[in-house]
From TrEMBL:
InterPro entries in UniProt: DUF3107
Name of the molecule in the record: DUF3107 domain-containing protein
Species whose genome carries this gene: Jiangella asiatica
Length: 75
């Protein structure tokens, strides 16, 4: 699952591939937003962790990665 995270005052979004389901990611984001500590903690497929303070979040996009097509043929 591809997760894109927008952060205040950052020109680029954070992107990670997660093995979690969309529902699991959504519940993690909602719990982080509701928590007084305010820290979003996600792990990617390689086991790396991404920690973002929720006060800096602008958006979280959860979706399937789009595969890029190469070539000129149509399928």
């Amino acid at each position: 699952m591809e997760v894109k995270i927008g952060v205040h005052n950052a020109t680029r979004e954070l992107v990670l591939e997660s093995a979690q389901s969309p529902e699991e990611i959504e519940s993690t984001v909602r719990a982080a937003l509701a928590d007084t500590d305010g820290l979003l903690d996600l792990a990617d497929e390689r086991g790396r962790r991404l920690l973002v303070r929720t006060e800096h979040l602008t958006y979280v996009e959860i979706g399937e990665p789009v595969e890029r097509r190469v070539g000129f043929g149509t399928v």
